[in-house]
Structures are given as structure tokens and as C-alpha cells.
Amino acid sequence: MADTTFELETERLQLRLLEAGDETLFCGLYTDPETMRFIAPPLSAAQAISSFRKIVVRQYEPSLEGRFLAVLERATRQPVGICGTSQHDVDALRLEVGILLRLEARGRGLAHEALMALMKRIFAMSPIQEICVRFSAECPAVERLNIRIGFTPCADEVPGEGLMSKRVWSVHRSPWYADQTVN
After folding, report:
1. Which residue range forms the structural domain that includes residue 125?
2. What band does 178 get if pLDDT is binned at 50, 70 and 90?
3. Are the CB atoms for 95 and 131 separated by under 8 Å?
4. 21, part of any domain
């Protein structure tokens, strides 16, 4: 039986667990220097294929960690990116989320729409108390996105200089989720 926990629809998007047919999407994003420039060095084709195959196998494990969702435009059913979860601190009830979009999907509000849907689902179906993002201090567009979603700086922000200097911001269930379910 398929797990529908992470099958989501928004006004313009459909999100679903990554599946074997999404290899081209995954590899295209994670090997692209422009997409990865504020995240990490791009993967080689072999690294991307290996990572993708490991991820697909783990998609139905009970943990919230490592859930990757294909982001599709509803109107065309064409893939425009990937969002999902990464680090899960079970003791702190904290989960990290992130998103990668193809160049043509950026700047259209799709990242906001996808992350909001994912975060609402996480808070609705789990005991997670805090959702965090980790992003480059050198990327003002991602900072604006995170502010718009409601993230604020954490005490454990990673200071430093240069491209890979990371900021860690979070939202807490109580104020954020209550506000989102009322609006």
C-alpha cells in the first residue's frame, strides 16, 4: 500500500514522494553548479545517481528524516523541483526542511508554496515542535523566502565568512501552526 502522507496539492503544485522515475530531475538539480552554488559543491553524475537510488529505497521508512518530494506544476504535471526533510533530531522534536527548484521555476513563489504545504503537513501529522532551515548567508533571495514563511534566527546559527557560511533559522509549532490554520 502506498504511503499518502506526503501527497500534497496546493493551488499550483502537486508534491509526492520521489520515485524511480525522478532520477533525471534529482540528478539535474544536484549536479547543476548554478543550483548548488549557495548550498554545496555540485555532485558528480555518479554521486548523484548513487544518492538518488539510496533515497528512493528509504522513502517509506518510518522516520521523517530523508523524505524527498518531487514538486510538480499541477497544470502541466511537469517537475519543477524537489523539497523535503533532512536532519531529524528526535530528542528535540526538530526537523530540517529544504527545497531545490529548476531555474525556470525560481522567482515565481513556488518555493514558498511548496514549503508552506510541507510544513503544515509535518506539524499536522507529527509531534515535531520545531522546523528549521539551513541556508547560505550569501543568498538574500533565500533569506527573504525564509522571512516570508516565518522563520527566525536560531541560537545555534553558524557564523562565519564566505559562500558556505550558513544561517540556521526555525519556526516553532505553537505560534506558526496556529497562525497558519486560522488563515
Report:
1. 8-182
2. low
3. yes
4. yes
